[in-house]
Amino acid sequence: MSNGDPRTVVCFPFIGDFIGGSHLSALGLIRNLPRSLFTPLVVLHDTQGPVAELFRREGIDFEPAPVLNRLERAGARDSAAALSVARTLPALVRYLRNRKVAIVHTNDGRAHLVWGLAARLAGSKHLWHHRGDASSFGLRRIAPWLPDRLVAVSKFASPRPGLFSAAAKCSVVHSPFDVMKMVAVEREDARGNVIAAIDCSPDTKLLGYVGTLVERKRPILFVEALAALQRLEPNVEFAGLFFGNALNGLDDAARSRAEALGVGNRIYHMGFRYPSELWIAGLDALLVTAVNEPLGRTLVEAMLLGTPVIASNSGGNPEVIEEGETGMLVRPDDPDEFAKACLKLFSNSVYCRHIVETARSEARARFSIERHVHAITAVYEDLLGTGGMRGAEQVHAHPL
Question: Which residues form the Glycosyl transferase family domain (predicted)?
Answer without folding.
Answer: 203-361
